[in-house]
Amino acid sequence: MSVLDELYREIILDHYQNPRNFGVLPEASRQAGGMNPSCGDQVEVMVLLEGDTIADIRFQGQGCAISTASASLMTEAVKGKKVAEALELSRKFQAMVVEGAPPDPALGDLLALQGVAKLPARVKCATLAWHALEEALK
Ligand code: ZN
Asked: Ligand 1 centre from 124 Cα, in Å?
């Protein structure tokens, strides 16, 4: 395993074991959820919008390491961002893991999930929270 693969693996494990922004957001103004029956992942994404800014975001649910880490990394990546910026990040992330597009450095720690592009069975795990986010921001 390369040093970079090792680092990515550690980031995924860290976010799986200590998910960020996990729990209920009582003041949420938007909410959406999703399921990935093939793996058993469930996620609920709660967003507090102030104007067109994601002032706060939290997620709940249960799932595998990939789905939990992806949701956790997502909340960190989009918190404080404008809706349009979050949707752009979602597009870049999905291009990376679904289409195997060259990773955009703007994705930051989300780059840790780029290996998912080579694991077709896990793509839905990685995109679950992002689909819920897009639904919540509609
Ligand atoms: Zn999964």
From this structure: 7
Ligand 1 centre to CA of 83 (Å) is: 26
CA distance 26 to 20: 17
Picking from 25, 105, 135, 122, the residue whose alpha carbon sits closest to that of residue 69 is: 122
Question: What does the pLDDT profile of the chain (138 residues) look like in tens digits?
Answer: 788 899 999 999 999 999 999 999 999 999 999 999 999 999 999 999 999 999 999 999 999 999 999 999 999 999 999 999 999 999 999 999 999 999 999 999 999 999 999 999 999 999 999 999 999 999
Separation of CA 39 and ligand 1 centre (Å):
5
User: Cα–Cα distance between 117 and 136 in angstroms, integer?
Assistant: 25
SS3 45: strand
Q: What is the DSSP string of 51-65?
A: TTEEEEEEEEEE--H
Expressed in angstroms and rounded, the spacing between residue 101 Cα and the centre of ligand 1 is: 21
